[in-house]
Amino acid sequence: MKEKDELTELCVKIERGLEISFDKLIAFKKYKNTPFVFERNGNIVEMSAEEVESEMNESKKTKSYKKENEVHLVNEPSKKASPKG
After folding, report:
1. φ and ψ at residue 37, rounded to 5 degrees
2. Within a domain: residue 69?
3. How far apart are CA 68 and CA 82, in angstroms?
4. How many domains does the chain have?
5. Most C-beta atoms within 10 A of its C-beta, which of 27, 60, 67, 71?
C-alpha cells in the first residue's frame, strides 16, 4: 500500500474515533445532566449537551465541502499547483 493511501486511511480512522468519543461524551453529559464549559471569543460559555449536539449536527451539515480522499503529504505538491507544460 502506498504511503499516501496509508495516511488517508489513518486520517479517516482517527476522525471516526474522535466522532465516536465525542458522541460518548455527549451521552455521558446528558446522563449526568452536566454542562459543557467552553471558551469562545475570550468568554467562558456553559452549554447543555443538547445544545452542543445541535451545534455539532449543524456543523456536519455545512462541512459537506470537504472531500474525503483529497489528502496529500506536506512535501508533496498538490496537483493544482503543478505547472502546465
Report:
1. -125, 120
2. no
3. 21
4. 1
5. 71
